[in-house]
Design a protein that fits this description.
The structure holds three protein chains of three kinds.
Chain A lengths: L1 H20 L21 E2 L7 E2 L9 E6 L4 H16 L4 E6 L3 H11 L5 E5 L3 H5 L7 E5 L5 E6 L4 H17 L5
Parallel strand pairs in A: 3-4, 4-5
Antiparallel strand pairs in A: 1-2, 3-6, 6-7
Chain B lengths: L1 H32 L18 H15 L4 H12 L14 H27 L8 H16 L2
Chain C lengths: L1 H28 L7 H5 L2 H24 L6 H6 L6 H6 L5 H22 L5 H25 L23 H30 L4 H32 L10 H26 L3 H24 L12 H25 L14 H31 L9 H21 L10 H4 L2 H19 L3 H24 L10 H6 L3 H26 L1 E7 L4 E4 L2 E12 L3 E12 L2 E6 L2 E5 L6 E3 L1 E3 L4 E12 L2 E10 L1 H19 L15
Antiparallel strand pairs in C: 1-10, 2-3, 3-4, 4-5, 4-6, 6-7, 8-9, 9-10
Helix pairs in contact in C: 1-3, 1-7, 3-6, 6-7, 6-8, 7-8, 7-12, 8-9, 8-11, 9-10, 9-20, 10-11, 10-13, 11-12, 13-14, 14-17, 16-17, 17-19, 19-20
Classes of the chains: A alpha/beta, B mainly alpha, C alpha+beta.
């Protein structure tokens, strides 16, 4: 008798998983870099190619790394939110200009405004690979000790800012810079 | 003169080496690329994908192999940055034991079922011979059939 | 007007389906359908016919909307375009979610009508229940269509121009693939309906299996052809040279096929010996359950697949609930009724029954494995245990060891007698085995070997030689000289030929797969006009690239001259097409097909002006994959047409 119930039991378990699955996004690839040190880089700056920028320059403070490109349509949607974040002085935002043309990148910032403290120029995308970038835009929150604590895949919306970024940054600001 | 000859021979030999090295390098690179998932399209390997990221990662694979890295080191590089999602061959660890050993278990369960059914079928008592009523019905049906054109 | 007519027809069909689903079954439960209930049960047939007419009207309305470019219908505007050639405007009907769902329903009502038409010999209460179950399935799908996915939804104000059919779908392969595949998916609902009807009535016997089997065979054959066409299309259309990727949606069609294969074999045992009754019923439920699961996976967004329709979690929820009701309900019915069904005939440890049981176990284990691999990423994600990918390397590693014993058994099975067989039945096969190994070694030496290659070829030769040997034995070629040979040949039933051809098809298929996987050569090389590249003994000379114009696209066409030992073989022109409606450029591969090899050319990127990366492939025996699949499908249809299934003039099938 028991073995006739077995198929039903297996099926019900399967249903449970499928039901949960409806809420998940199979395309989203979470980052394995959360709670790991932000990968090192030393890239030429977008505005001043002679100067170099890297995570070590931001040590001791909570900061945001935003990956963007002039060819990225979604970035234009995100841009006003970034401008607002810069105005709010939430945390310094460092841009990573990903696989772009320097002139196009500069033109985009000139036209739409520059929310970035500084933009790093990652022409061949190698730094992007180190950060596990697979789609633009992506945004990282890095703490005072240079550890990645959060990654936003896709655009930063006002809901993300109020719901996730502000609370997180406030929490990280309370953490000590060393120890 | 001898030195020149020696140098020429050596360079010839080395270039032949390099040629075969290129071919094996190419093969190793392609084999690796078919194991890695393109994160942009997500339904192709980076060997087949035309996405910008796939092109970049293919370049990365070739450069690392040329630098002498092993296949496992290249795969580890990718996993460190993109997670297990980038591997089309899921790693064998505690969370994937069921995946890798599942087929075995299914087969074993099936075999156990098979054996138990065979035993049951063998030891089943023979069917009782049909009753007189059933035989009469059968005869009637068969006669009916015969009468049809 | 016409789209509203279509919508209305669907609503009427829904009402009829409700009637068809509820009344006959309820009536059949009163006094087992005797007396007054008989009239209510008789409602089933006309209801089935009416549904067929109504849904066909709705379907015709949708086709009409596409043909006349009615962009006031949202679905038409999203999937069509005035520049689209007529045949694609028609096939665009099933190019998206809503329309393909309507195709599903259309095929369902056609199958239902066919069952109503061709089942005169069924006892009335059985027919009532079968049609009733199919009616209930209709209710579910029509409800889904009407409530969440109405293809007749209006777009007001109407669009001036449509968004065009996905360029990938503008192809003859895609015209035929969904209908064929759905004939299979939906066809399994007939076997399902028969199984449920049998469970309701508590009557599971050989007669039931005989009624059920031809329907199942036809559905299975169509499924084979549908999967084959999908694979064949992917091969020439997608430009990567592969033909099977173990993608979630491919697996979604493969799982019901595997269980369907187990089902047709199990049905033959139940038909001939009255055994395996419970198991056959369970298989019938599982086959259709996997069909429905496939529908869910493709339309809910739960798994990533390039094949998936535009996804909407609310639709996913609807299908999930439907799946829960249909499969959950039937498994509940199974758990309740199966124990009282009875055991069936005895058979020995070595017998055809036991071989077929082993076949079933292997096939179901294979289907379970595919399910495990397909859903495992979802399992882990749901349990918050990380995100992994399960792709071809996994499936190929686990699937081959599962299939190898099956292939071994496949050849030997037909030699075993029913009920009790012994080693003497298969003794003659030892020579076949030796011959197979020799064949394989010879081939491997000729082609170049690796252990997997030799194993694959040995199994294929084993199957083919054993199949031929079985035919020779059956024809009593070596003994009986009293009856004429042509008479003996003609007296072999269709089901026998079907089995032979389908089994041989598997052998042919294995040869193709083994050789392509083992000996394929693929190069991605940058070429400029004038460059020559050699692959597999063929020389490919790149003549140049030029721009060409198609009906709704512009393309770059590369021309290649292919020679072998200086002798011209072909001129191939792969293209990269950019469709006027936008989107990513499509690769149109150029393939030179031959019985022993395909030459495959596809354009990659232009890395410098005039310099293109080209994918050149030499694929030995890939045509045997297609040939094998066609043989398998053909064999199934042949078996379904066996005269013992056909109606006798007297209206009763032979006992």
């Amino acid at each position: 008798m028991k073995r006739f119930i077995l198929p039903l039991g297996v099926f019900v378990a399967l249903l449970g998983f499928l039901w949960v699955g409806l809420r998940l996004n199979p395309r989203e690839v979470p980052s394995p870099l959360i709670d790991k040190p932000a990968p090192m880089f030393a890239l030429a700056q977008l505005h001043e190619p002679g100067r170099v920028i890297g995570p070590h320059d931001m040590a001791g403070q909570v900061w945001i790394l935003n990956v963007w490109a002039s060819w990225c349509v979604a970035c234009r949607q995100e841009h006003p939110v970034l401008m607002e974040m810069a105005r709010m002085k939430l945390a310094p935002i460092v841009g990573l200009n990903y696989k772009d043309n320097r002139d196009d990148g500069l033109a985009t910032l000139a036209r739409a405004g520059d929310p970035y403290m500084v933009s790093a120029f990652d022409q061949d995308g190698r730094v992007g690979i180190d950060y596990g970038v697979y789609g633009v835009p992506e945004t990282f929150v890095i703490d005072k000790r240079g550890v990645i604590r959060f990654k936003q895949i896709g655009i930063v919306t006002p809901e993300v800012v109020t719901g996730k970024l502000i609370p997180l940054i406030e929490k990280l600001n309370r953490e000590p810079a060393h120890g | 003169m001898v030195k020149l000859f020696a140098v020429l021979t050596m360079s010839l030999a080395l270039s032949a080496f390099a040629a075969t090295d290129d071919a094996t390098l190419e093969k190793r690179a392609v084999d690796l690329e078919t194991e890695l998932r393109c994160l942009v399209c997500q339904n192709q390997t980076i060997a087949d994908s035309h996405a910008g990221l796939a092109v970049d990662l293919r370049r990365e694979v070739r450069e690392q192999l040329a630098q002498g890295k092993s296949e496992q080191e290249v795969l580890d590089f990718m996993v460190q940055r993109y997670g297990d999602f980038v591997l089309y061959r899921p790693p064998v660890r505690s969370t994937t034991w069921l995946l890798w050993f599942g087929p075995f278990l299914l087969l074993a369960a099936g075999a156990a079922l098979l054996i138990s059914r065979l035993r049951a079928a063998r030891s089943r008592p023979a069917d009782a011979p049909p009753s007189e009523e059933t035989l009469q019905r059968a005869r009637a049906l068969l006669d009916n059939n015969k009468e049809q054109p | 007007m016409i789209p509203e007519l279509g919508s209305f027809a669907l609503m009427l069909a829904f009402c009829v389906a409700l009637l068809q689903g509820v009344v006959p079954i309820a009536a059949s439960l009163r006094n087992n359908g005797a007396g007054g209930a008989a009239r209510w049960m008789a409602l089933a047939r006309p209801a089935a016919y009416s549904q067929a007419v109504l849904v066909t009207i709705a379907f015709a309305c949708l086709v009409h909307a596409f043909v006349v470019n009615d962009f006031s219908v949202l679905y038409v505007a999203s999937h069509s375009n005035t520049a689209l050639p007529l045949q694609y405007r028609i096939s665009a009907v099933w190019g998206g979610h809503e329309g393909s769902l309507l195709l599903w329903v259309e095929i369902l009502v056609l199958w239902t009508a066919a069952v109503a038409l061709l089942s005169r010999q069924l006892p009335a209460e059985m027919l009532a229940r079968v049609l009733g179950v199919m009616g209930l399935i209709s209710v579910g799908f029509l409800a889904f269509t009407l409530w969440t996915s109405n293809p007749f939804e209006r777009l007001l104000p109407a669009a001036l121009q449509g968004q065009d059919l996905n360029p990938l779908l503008q192809d003859i392969g895609m015209i035929a693939h969904p209908p064929l595949l759905y004939m299979g998916y939906v066809g399994f609902s007939v076997a399902f309906a028969f199984a449920i009807a049998a469970l309701i009535g508590g009557q599971l016997d050989a007669a039931w299996a005989r009624w059920s089997r031809p329907w199942t065979l036809v559905a299975w054959s169509f499924m084979t052809l549908g999967i084959f066409l999908g694979s064949f299309w992917a091969y020439y259309e997608l430009g990567w040279g592969g033909w099977w990727f173990w993608d979630a949606v491919e697996n979604a069609s493969f799982m019901p096929w595997l269980v369907g294969t187990a089902l047709i074999h199990s049905l033959s045992v139940t038909e001939k010996r009255g055994s395996f009754k419970n198991w056959t019923v369970l298989l019938a439920i599982m086959a259709f359950a996997l069909s429905l699961l496939g529908t869910f996976l493709v339309r809910s967004g739960v798994l990533t697949s390039v094949h998936a329709f535009a996804t909407d979690p609310s639709r996913g929820l609807f299908i999930l609930v439907f799946l829960a009701l249909v499969v959950g309900g039937s498994l509940l019915l199974y758990a309740w009724r199966a124990p009282s069904v009875g055991l069936g005939g005895r058979f020995a440890a070595i017998s055809r029954e036991s071989a077929l049981l082993a076949n079933n176990v292997l096939l179901v284990a294979a289907a379970g494995t595919v399910l495990l691999g397909t859903l495992y990423p979802l399992f882990l994600d749901a349990l918050d245990m990380g995100k992994i990918s399960v792709g071809p390397p996994y499936f190929e590693t686990v699937f081959v060891p599962l299939m190898a014993p099956m292939l071994l058994l496949l050849a030997a099975g037909p030699f075993l007698r029913w009920k009790q067989a012994g080693f003497k039945d298969v003794r003659s096969l030892r020579w076949v085995g030796v011959a197979a190994v020799l064949c394989a070694i010879a081939a491997a030496v000729a082609v170049g070997s690796s252990p997997l290659l030799v194993m694959g070829l040995t199994l294929a030769a084993w199957i083919l030689l054993a199949t031929v040997w079985h035919l020779l034995q059956r024809l009593r070629v070596f003994e009986d000289n009293r009856t004429r040979f042509s008479h003996r040949l003609g007296s072999l039933p269709g089901s026998y030929w079907g089995m032979l051809i389908a089994h041989a098809g598997i052998g042919v298929f294995v040869i193709g797969v083994t050789l392509v996987k083992g000996r394929e050569i693929s190069h991605d090389v940058p070429l400029q006009a004038g460059d020559v590249h050699q692959v597999g003994g063929y020389d490919f000379r790149f003549i140049g690239a030029k721009n060409v114009q198609g009906p709704n696209y512009s393309a770059v066409r590369g021309t290649f001259e292919v020679t072998r030992d200086g002798k011209p073989v072909a001129t191939l022109s792969p293209e990269k097409r950019q469709f006027a409606s936008g989107g990513m450029p499509m690769t149109e591969a150029a393939i030179h097909r031959g019985p022993t090899r395909d030459l495959y050319l596809a354009l990659g990127e232009e890395v410098a002006p005039g310099k293109w990366v080209v994918r050149i492939q030499h694929k030995p025996f890939v045509a045997w994959i297609w040939g094998g699949a066609l043989l398998i499908g053909f064999g199934g249809l042949l078996a379904a047409l066996d005269k013992r299934y056909r109606l006798k003039r007297s209206g009763r099938s032979a006992a």
